[in-house]
Amino acid sequence: MKSNITKLFTALLLVSFTALVYTGCKKKEDDKPKDYSASTDNANANNAFAGIWKEVSVVTDSSGVLRSPSSGCATATITPVDTTWPKTVVLQFGTSTTNCPGSDGNRRRGTITAVFSGRYLDSNTVITITLTNYYHNDYHVQGTQTIRNMGRNSAGHPVYNVIVNSATITSPDGAHTSTWSTNQNREFYAGYLSNWYLADDVYLITGSANGTAANGESYTIVVNTALRINIGCPWIVSGAFTLTLADYPTYPIVFDYGTGACDANATALLNGTTYNITMY
């Protein structure tokens, strides 16, 4: 059995409208959200943190054996190298100024550190992931990801609770920063019985998220249809969520990843109009 969780998480966001905003004045009734930038910011944060776990899962399994990173220019270490726990896994990508291209099509630089309290497939194991000068496709990503093995569901699949609190994502030019938090469950839907073989790993994500977009808009998100993550694809392949802006609670936005194709395309339904989204 192996312990690999893939791209977590996920992508989520969009834009909405409300009749009243309690900021000391009343908005016009025809005032509606002007864009869907919140949805894009959320989707990018979700993909970045899903990719962080995916990189950790590639290099180690439930036995604590170290494998090669997916990026040829990345290095990985694990300590201690014996059979005792906890263990610390450190992945180093590129240099402070040079990206390391991965087999998943993403470019990374900086350091990911993951501390495992026990084997990934063991109930109650906690994995704490921290970042040091970490960049995902030139976006500066900061935050801590905590993953806890909650045991198995009625179908016998391992389930993990994943929490990210107050993460920040800063644009490559440094001009825009968004924040993101999530509390989600990841069901290890398929692949956990095929030791050492990653390509068949599938995760289903449910739960909620919230944050503040780079334009200052606050939002909340609830997953409607489980988000499906295939280890062999760099993006979420299917599922949908609803995003609601704090200023426009009566205009929810539905973000849809499609029906299973491995591509960067998604759609956002806002006020009766569907917008095409491309995730970074």
Main traits of this protein?
single chain, 280 residues, mainly beta, 15-stranded antiparallel sheet, globular, disordered N terminus
Topology, please?
Blueprint: H1 37-59, E1 75-79, E2 87-93, E3 100-101, E4 107-116, E5 126-136, E6 139-142, E7 145-152, E8 158-170, E9 177-190, E10 202-212, E11 218-230, E12 238-245, E13 253-259, E14 265-270, E15 273-278
Antiparallel strand pairs: 1-2, 2-4, 3-4, 4-5, 5-6, 5-7, 6-8, 7-8, 8-9, 9-10, 10-11, 11-12, 12-13, 13-14, 14-15
Report on the architecture of this protein.
The chain has 280 residues and is mainly beta. The chain has one domain (37-278). It has 1 helix and 15 strands, in the order H-E-E-E-E-E-E-E-E-E-E-E-E-E-E-E. It has one helix spanning 37-59, and strands spanning 75-79, 87-93, 100-101, 107-116, 126-136, 139-142, 145-152, 158-170, 177-190, 202-212, 218-230, 238-245, 253-259, 265-270, 273-278. It has a 15-stranded antiparallel sheet that branches. Strand 11 and strand 12 (238-245) form a beta hairpin. The model is unreliable at 1-30 (pLDDT under 50).
